[in-house]
Amino acid sequence: MQHIRNIETEQSKRDARWNAARTLADCDAYMAIEAQRMGAHGFVFLKRPEHKVRGPSWMRGATASVVEHYRYAREIMGISDADQIYS
Q1: Is the separation of the CB atoms in 32 and 71 below 8 Å?
Q2: CA 50, 38, 42 angle in degrees (round to 5)?
Q3: How far apart are CA 56 and CA 54, in angstroms?
Q4: Which of 16, 33, 68, 82 has an alpha carbon 20 to 30 Å from 2's alpha carbon atom?
Q5: Quick one: CA dihedral 40, 45, 48, 54, positive or negative?
Q6: How big, in percent rounded to 5, are the helix, strand and coil portions of the chain?
Q7: Is 3 buried (19+), middle (13-18) or exposed (0-12) by CB count in 10 A?
Q8: Over the stretch 49-65, which tens digit does the pLDDT of each residue have?
Q9: Is it the case that residue 2 has pLDDT exceeding 50?
Q10: What is the mean pLDDT of residues 62-72?
Q11: Cα distance between the two ends of the chain
């Protein structure tokens, strides 16, 4: 789809990965990558200075959302909490 070389964006790379998925395992791998990526973005988002003034309730909810992305990625990949501890 790219008409000019080396102008890939993060979105176009994700689209290429999704369009290349042919099996359910490919879909699972894509979803795990996306869940981990969103979790990583969430942690960066939480560290932004403007969130220092938010209350503890907001912070607990936002942190739980980020943790849930990682839990979902581990679930897709078949990694248990015990596996995560020992790795």
Answers
A1: no
A2: 20
A3: 7
A4: 33
A5: negative
A6: 75, 0, 25
A7: exposed
A8: 888 788 889 889 888 98
A9: no
A10: 85
A11: 39
Quick one: angle between helices 24-46 and 10-19, nearest 10?
A: 160
Predicted local distance difference test score (pLDDT) of residue 76: 80
pLDDT at 15 over 80: no
Quick check: 13 pLDDT over 50? yes
Please state, rounded to an integer, the average pLDDT across all residues of the chain: 77
62's CB contacts (< 8 A; 6+ apart) are 42, 45, 46, 51
Please name the amino acid found at residue 28.
D
Contact present, 49 and 84 (Cβ < 8 Å):
no
Q: What is the dihedral of CA 75, 65, 24, 17, to 10 degrees?
A: -130
